[in-house]
Amino acid sequence: MNEADRIKAALEEMASMAVPIEGPDDPNKVWVLCEICYEVIALTDLRILHLPLKAEMFTSPFPGRDVQPPWQPGIEYEFMLCPHCQHRFAVEEDRIRTQDGFYVVPETIQEGNDGKEEGIEVKGGKGTEGNGKKEKELKPAKGGKR
Ligand SMILES: [Zn+2]
Known about the structure:
The chain is of the alpha+beta class. About 15% of the residues lie in helices and about 15% in strands.
């Protein structure tokens, strides 16, 4: 129809062509890249990732595309080899490569990672200020002289 509708239709067509990928849309998840060959080999959830690394912490990098997880459950770090280059995917266990760069793997799951905020004192606003002053001296007008 008009220009705006044509643009909108074009944008919708582009969006429909994009392959939806689960994961990095979720801010808690990152792609795991092989440190040697840079292939994307898995997806991991930073909320559960901690040392020692275990296969169960890593899922298929592209779950929607019938791609299998890189390692069978039970596999430990020593045997977590990149499916592409067969090297250990992370040279050091406590550091993995993600799409955002290296991520240092914590030793334990961080507590309080579920969104709880520390108590923040909310101080009373301006309401209380100057209460005393409001009672302005309502001096009885001194009756003048009559
Ligand atoms: Zn590799």
